[in-house]
Amino acid sequence: MTAQRRRRLVLASQSPARLGLLRQAGLVPEVLVSGVDEDAVTAPTPAELALALAEAKASVVAAKPEVHGALVIGCDSVLDLDGQALGKPADAEEATARWKAMRGRAGTLQTGHCVWDTASGRHVAATASTVVHFGEPTDEEIAAYVASGEPLFVAGAFTLDGRSAPFIDGIEGDHGNVIGLSLPLLRRLLAELGVGITELWAPAEG
């Protein structure tokens, strides 16, 4: 498929990790941040909250006239620890307390995905779940990690592709989902809309 005929793809997220995952998979999305007030969105469970946030972001961006005809992807992640939904920590103190509570335990990273086809008005959504087994960093290691600033910008106060990677003992499920987006789930959602993910690939270089 030529670049002229390839469908526009819009990512309704400012996450550089999600953008990076899509680019590594051969996709070239535009980025348009939704501006959704995440604190105003509520749901009974962490998985439902992640899905509601993803749907809210995708729907806001899909309604913008400038994206008409495009495929819009909305995602949001929360960590389910003992049934509590943990997003980005508010400050360093909260990030420190989170890590002391998580170490040596397991939580489930829930990422909601919503794909909106603005040409047809149809949308599909689902949540991907990955179990994360946390290691046991010392208080000193936690303090150093929090001082780096990284945990303040990621759901659950950790990420697999950053400085906290040495503190994660393992996962059960999709690695990309923990970083911010499940490519296998995205492929299935696109297929439900009648779009093959390979139709969205950018032309190979060289």
UniProtKB/TrEMBL annotation:
Gene Ontology biological process: nucleotide metabolic process
Gene Ontology, cellular component aspect: cytoplasm
Pfam families: Maf (PF02545)
Keyword Hydrolase: yes
Places the protein is found: Cytoplasm
Active site: 76 (proton acceptor)
CDD domains assigned to the protein according to its UniProt record, in alphabetical order: Maf
GO molecular function, one term: nucleoside triphosphate diphosphatase activity
Catalytic activity: a ribonucleoside 5'-triphosphate + H2O = a ribonucleoside 5'-phosphate + diphosphate + H(+); a 2'-deoxyribonucleoside 5'-triphosphate + H2O = a 2'-deoxyribonucleoside 5'-phosphate + diphosphate + H(+)
Cofactor entry: a divalent metal cation
Keyword Cytoplasm part of the UniProt annotation: yes
EC number: 3.6.1.9
Primary location recorded for the protein, binned into one broad class: cytoplasm
UniProtKB keywords: Cytoplasm, Hydrolase, Nucleotide metabolism
Function: Nucleoside triphosphate pyrophosphatase. May have a dual role in cell division arrest and in preventing the incorporation of modified nucleotides into cellular nucleic acids.
Family: Belongs to the Maf family.
Official protein name in the record: Nucleoside triphosphate pyrophosphatase
Lineage: Bacteria, Bacillati, Actinomycetota, Actinomycetes, Kitasatosporales
